[in-house]
């Protein structure tokens, strides 16, 4: 429809009923205006992605796991509504607290941080974490996981998280309280877009000082991510916040265009929940439409919804909506297939005669 003409759905005089369901509430949002309407549209787009069997990437920035939202991610994985994940190292690190039963509590944002420091309490907004009983214990757990027994060959962060999920599944006190262990069980690759910018990497430092080397194959990692999109009939992203996870998932389209010399045009669908402004030039606030100019999305005018809201408010609504009205999907189990997906992308790359010459030179 031409958006410059006076047509569209009538705005209702909204009535609420104590017996309303989450589907009813989403309809209220979708029939209203502003970011309420965007939230309603985003929930419906997420449902559409599930119905069409889109390969769905969840990107997670910020600090979503310290507030317990890893449990929501876990449920979405179990239902087959998330196929692969890109997140920060902090979200992986703090999620593991719950698996091992380490204390994380509600606190206050209106507080004297000098006194918190004296009391050995670390604060993330209004969430409190004990310095010794939680962080120090978690650090010892991570150091043991990735110490001397961790293989010396190159690895990706998906392999890193898969091993972490395996160990937590086998040894943690509450393995069911971690989306990392669930990702391991369901073969959902979890990539950490900035592992060195997290406590995960800090805990590798003691072993590096002792002479152990960690060979992160970051180039293979981005090729694997592109291979996932390349193999998908349709591909979509649900973005919680922005930052590096957002761009990591979106750059798959431009990478495919670059190496295959064609216009694959990126994602079919993207939902973005952000509180960042677009006018400052930052990636977190960059509009999804802007991504079309980079080849990150297939279309600049459809298949995308941006909700300007706090993800801790909007994400549970989207999740509960699809959990309430969408049937479970069979897990795609991408992690087990990632080697074959990589090889397929490599084969298609070298179908170009010029690239075959490059490969021969490299072997010699």
CATH topology: Deoxyhypusine Synthase
**CATH homologous superfamily - what is it?**
Deoxyhypusine synthase
Query: Termini, distance in Å?
Result: 58 Å
- Overall pLDDT, averaged? 95
CATH class: Alpha Beta
Portion of residues within helices: 40-55%
Overall morphology: globular
Q: Can you list the strand order of the major beta sheet?
A: 6-2-1-7-8-9
Count of β-strands: 9
Radius of gyration: 22 Å
Low-confidence runs: none
Q: In sequence order, what are the helices and strands, one letter per element?
A: HHEHEHEHEEHHHEHHHEHHEEHHH
Total number of domains: 1
Portion in beta strands: 5-15%
Q: Give me the CATH architecture, please.
A: 3-Layer(aba) Sandwich
Total helical elements: 16
Q: Tell me about the biggest sheet?
A: 6 strands, parallel
> Based on helices, strands and strand pairing, what is the structural class?
alpha/beta
Overview of the structural elements:
This protein has 364 residues and is of the alpha/beta class. The chain has a single domain (22-363), classed as Deoxyhypusine Synthase (3-Layer(aba) Sandwich), CATH 3.40.910. The chain has helices spanning 22-30, 34-51, 70-78, 89-99, 113-118, 131-145, 157-171, 179-186, 199-202, 205-209, 218-231, 243-250, 252-260, 311-325, 334-349, 353-363; strands spanning 55-60, 84-87, 104-106, 121-124, 127-130, 190-192, 235-240, 269-274, 304-308. The strands form 2 sheets. The protein has a 6-stranded parallel sheet, with helices on both faces. A 3-stranded antiparallel sheet has the order 3-5-4. Strand 1, helix 3 and strand 2 (84-87) form a beta-alpha-beta unit. The longest helix has 18 residues, at 34-51. It is globular. The termini are far apart.
């Amino acid at each position: 429809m031409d958006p410059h003409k006076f047509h569209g759905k009538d705005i209702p005089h909204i009535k609420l009923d104590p017996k309303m369901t989450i589907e009813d509430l989403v309809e209220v949002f979708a029939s209203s205006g502003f970011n309420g309407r965007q939230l309603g549209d985003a929930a419906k787009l997420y449902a559409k992605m599930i119905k069409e069997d889109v390969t769905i990437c969840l990107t997670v920035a910020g600090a979503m796991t310290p507030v317990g939202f890893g449990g929501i991610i876990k449920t979405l994985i179990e239902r087959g509504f998330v196929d692969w994940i890109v997140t920060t190292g902090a979200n992986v690190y703090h999620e593991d607290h719950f698996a091992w039963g380490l204390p994380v509590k509600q606190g206050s944002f209106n507080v004297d941080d000098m006194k918190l420091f004296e009391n050995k309490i670390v604060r993330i907004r209004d969430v409190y974490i004990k310095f010794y009983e939680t962080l120090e214990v978690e650090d010892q757990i991570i150091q043991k996981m990735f110490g001397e027994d961790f293989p010396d060959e190159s690895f990706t962060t998906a392999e890193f998280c898969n091993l972490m999920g395996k160990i937590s599944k086998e040894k943690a006190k509450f393995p069911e309280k971690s989306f990392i262990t669930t990702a391991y069980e369901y073969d959902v690759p979890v990539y950490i877009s900035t592992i060195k910018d997290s406590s995960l990497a800090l805990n590798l430092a003691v072993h590096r000082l002792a002479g152990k080397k960690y060979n992160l194959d970051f180039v293979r990692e981005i090729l694997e991510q592109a291979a996932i999109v390349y193999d998908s009939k349709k591909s979509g992203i649900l973005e919680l916040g922005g930052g590096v996870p957002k761009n990591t998932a979106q750059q798959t389209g431009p990478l495919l265009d670059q190496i295959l010399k064609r216009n694959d045009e990126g994602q079919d669908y993207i939902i973005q929940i952000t509180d960042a402004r677009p006018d400052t030039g930052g990636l977190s606030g960059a509009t999804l439409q802007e991504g079309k100019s980079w080849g990150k999305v297939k279309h600049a005018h459809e298949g995308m919804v941006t909700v300007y809201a706090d993800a801790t408010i909007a994400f549970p609504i989207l999740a509960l909506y699809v959990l309430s009205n969408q049937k479970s999907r069979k897990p795609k189990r991408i992690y087990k297939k990632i080697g074959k997906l990589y090889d397929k992308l490599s084969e298609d790359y070298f179908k170009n005669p010029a690239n075959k010459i490059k490969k021969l030179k490299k072997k010699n």
